[in-house]
Amino acid sequence: MSDPRTALVTGAGQGLGLAISTRLARDGHRVVMGDVDGDLVAAAALCLHAAGHDVTNVAFDVTDEEGVERAFAATLGEGPLHVLVNNAGIISRTRAEEFDPARFDLEMLVNLGGTMRCSRAAYPYLVAAASPAVVNLASVGSTFGLPHRLGYSTAKTGIVGLTRTLAAEWGRSGIRVNAVAPGYIETPMMLSGFDSGALDRDRLLSRTPLMRFGRAEEIAAAVSFLVGPDASFVTGVVLEVDGGITIDGTFHRDERHRSTVPD
Ligand SMILES: NC(=O)c1ccc[n+]([C@@H]2O[C@H](COP(=O)([O-])OP(=O)(O)OC[C@H]3O[C@@H](n4cnc5c(N)ncnc54)[C@H](O)[C@@H]3O)[C@@H](O)[C@H]2O)c1
To answer: Interior CA angle at 65 toward 60 and 66, to 5°?
Structure first.
């Protein structure tokens, strides 16, 4: 039997990163779970390990270039890396005119810079692998202007450009680079929007053609597809997994409930 493929997931301690790690482990990958919160990711990895999966955990901050390189060297050694998932992310909600510039810089540094840093650090390990693939986490904020999320939305729009640029450049080395753009998925990050009152549950649901929030496992399934052999000719795309929220042109009050719709 061939050696298992190795995957590294950032921000793997909870939420989507944990669901993606779980899915990739079930798919048969050896998974390196990274997170800035060392205790959180150690506990998450312990659970997956107890379930019989081949996982290791490592604490590193995606804003720290040397820390990223050390963590990659410590967990990957000389070995190839088949899959990188740039998932670590942070968000805050403040009116644009009051947005703290230092916070803006931090959101760029984590969400966009982290993806750039981890991708570059992974490059030597990816080029040494068979059929390597990178998946970056975009957002509905890559399509919409999200009021009160100036740092987040700007960074997530940048993820689209970064994904296309790396796909164009690294395709020549056989590395596929794609993005998944989740809609509203029930994770601690989204629930924080309800807690703070920034998100309106009913309005969100009424704007979503599938009329529900997503599950973390549904994002993990999209990542699994993009890094697997069925996506072997797919690169540079942003796969929206959002229940249709970014394609909905419904503006009639009752349109959602009608079987025939006036134009
Ligand atoms: N949940 C959603 O509805 C949703 C929608 C669109 C996009 N996303 C994106 O998916 C990704 C994961 O979102 P989530 O909802 O699971 O978030 P989350 O807040 O639940 O988890 C994020 C994880 O990233 C880690 N992290 C934060 N800063 C880090 C850093 N500097 N270095 C390393 N790790 C760091 C955190 O410790 C945490 O474990 C993010 O990039 C987010 O923008 C989420």
So the answer is: 80
pTM above 0.90, yes or no: yes
Instruction: Kindly list the protein residues whose Cβ atom lies closer than 6 A to any atom of ligand 1.
Output: 10-11, 13-17, 35-37, 40, 61-63, 87-90, 110, 114, 137, 139, 182, 184-185, 187-190
Q: Considering the domain 6-257, what is its CATH architecture?
A: 3-Layer(aba) Sandwich (3.40)
- Cα distance from N-terminal residue to C-terminal residue, the chain: 58
Residues sharing a CB contact under 8 Å with residue 140, sequence separation 6 or more, in sequence order: 146, 181, 182, 183, 184, 242, 245, 246
Domain ranges of the chain: 6-257
DSSP 80-147: ---EEEE---------GGG--HHHHHHHIIIIIIHHHHHHHHHHHHHHTSSS-EEEEE--GGGTS--T
Question: Which tens digits make up the pLDDT trace of 146-165?
Answer: 999 999 999 999 999 999 99
Asked whether the beta carbons of 25 and 54 are under 8 A apart, the reply is yes
